[in-house]
Here is the input.
Amino acid sequence: MLVPLSWLKDYVDIDVTADVLEEKLFSCGFEVEEKYQLGRDIEGVVVGEVVTCEPIPETHLHVCTVNVGAEELLQICCGADNVEAGKKFPVAMVGAQVYATAKDHVTIEGTMKIKKGKLRGYESHGMLCSGTELGLNEDLYPGAGYNGLLVLPDDAVIGSDVKELTGMNDWIFDVSITANRPDCQCIFGLAREVAAVLGKELKTPALDYTETEVEKEGFEVTVEAQDLCPRYSAHYVYDVKLGQSPAWMRRRLALVGNNSISNIVDITNYIMRELGQPLHAFDCDFLEGNAINVRRAAEGEKITTLDEKEFTLTNNNLVICDGVKPVALAGIMGGLNSEIRPTTTEVMFESAKFARDNIRKSSRALGQVSDASAKYSKGVDEYSTVMAMKRALHLVEELGCGKISKTHKDVNTGNSVEPREMKASIKKVNAVLGIEVPTEEIERILTNLSFAPVINGDELTIQVPAYREDMEDYPDISEEVIRMYGYEHIVPTFMPTAKVTIGGNNLQQKTTLKLKKALCASGVFEGMHYSFFSPSDLDLCGFAADAPERHAISLINPINIDLSLMRTTLAPQMIHAMARNQKRGTLEGRIFEIGNKFIPKELPLTEYPDERETLCIGVFGKNESFFTLKGLAENVAAVLNINFTYEPVQKPFLHPYQAASILCNGEVVGYLGRLTYEIMDEEDMTVPGYVLEIDLKSLYGYYGTYPTFEALPKFAEENRDLALVMDKAITCGQVEECIRRACGFVKNVVLFDVYEGKQIAADKKSMAFTVRFTPKDEEFKADTVDGYVKKILKTLKKELEIDLRS
Here is the structure.
């Protein structure tokens, strides 16, 4: 929120520098994200008076002598059409810095340094400036919008700094307002805090006005949706004279980012910035039925807002209607059919409190955001609703832009705008802080914050203003006390039940880190995705209607449809990641993610879902293959000191002949495989992609297991190569497992060749293995290993119908 220092000074006598005020705001809980002076880029510009002004023949230029308060007059060439002897203008002397608008000066990041120059043979020692070159417009300073020199007042002191004269020495604070303090999302709200922290008196804006005897006969206000609109005020103003707002109002609106429109509209914007209460003014000529009704929209009802956008509404949207039709989207924007026009002569001012959650949801659902919706979404209190209407009517009278009738309607649910009483124990207030704040300090602080405290022994009684809706119990009082007393007074102490521990990662965190390091060492980059995905992702992967992956949790209020389900698999997002990389020219890569998938026990939810930590790996590129992914799976097994086995599997999004289940001790823990050509075409992938998913939660029982030491064999090991012929359906894992089971002396089995061709039957394949035998207690004899080989071949023949290739 932008806060001009000059505006704050209307309500508080601020006698500290901008730097000190920034520190004070920080100390009481308001972060100043940025602080800058309005004319921060302008240097060396003073008030100058043109003494002589002579035209340069055959040009539009003039050569002028200018008095800037120095010993000698400056000669300056100028091409503006309003330069004239005897008038005063801003003068940028040699070495000064202004905003760049010309090509013959040295430009520095949007500004330019003025240097001595020569035009048509005449030396020029500076530049006479326009408002644009000083960063001013018509709203910030009268006359600055003219396409020529900025004319300064006749009483401007020659040689004085132009910043002070034009208000460019004003400081702007960009303050971050926390969600629990909506009462401070305005200039006056922050002024209350400044007054408290500086111990100064707070000056309330003028709220007085004079009503005439005129009434708008028969006018009625009804609120059907009081749950969404607990207070709605309307006041009739007639004999309206639209025109330009005074310079002081236009300047203040410009300082906080609002353009001036007309006096009536500017009043509503001014009060929103000053008091935090959005207002709206309806043109009475376009209000039919002499009535206003606040209700929920009918299904399919339409409205066109001031920005000429048409919206189709639902019963969840709140609308302001006249006796016939909707004339405003409540809390968001007025309707085009009742806007203030140059012909407007009667207006109905609106000040209301709307339910913050309804405005926030409507604004998001309709994709329509405004300054008003931003205020209402954070919260507006009824105290400000009442105060803002009085302030608006005062400004109408002050600006002379209308007459105030006696027709005032205030429909509310009975909520009081008077302070409410709260009692608390001083001991409890101090207990929250862990220190003893002197009673007189508590009383001083709460008095400065307008809580009117009364202390009787340990009992503290305060009067909570209606605008402080965040105050609920004694912990809130503790917060108010300490932010003004100073957080530096808090002494760090352990909680009574606290214990000192050495800290560090737990076993799961350590193992996850080892997995990440091992994968990174294999050239795989870590990625992170949202925990949500789209129903279309499930369609992309081709999951059947009854597939467990479709048993996903739907979000009640998703950001959009693409993030509407809690993910039950990590594969779709990994597929999208590989596709995005290829579309951006990266045609080779390896990515992994360790994240949770969310498996509900039943839908709708009756308890928390099972959050299962899962590893997903995606590899893509011409040089990658199914075995690249299998090697990465083996790396995972090596980190966990376990063994994986693999069996063929069918997945709708994986190639039917390049997909396998991953098993650990007979339990399926994941899968890996190549993406189908259909998915590659759908995602515009130009190189093959492969995906792996492992349910790490099912492997938690193996975390923390380490390899046991085996002494080196005392006797020589022996290797045998076996070329085996078998059915094509038999897997390498089945053969390895059978060989190991057949002989207890087998230490290692390694596949080194696979052959299919003319030399063997068409339904067969040959797989060649190197089998290593390790002796235990005695050296192998010449025929011992041969016996082991015969035993292995016999077992292979019996169990898998495998023969030794001849």
The longest strand covers residues 43-55. Residues 102-108 have pLDDT under 50 and may be disordered.
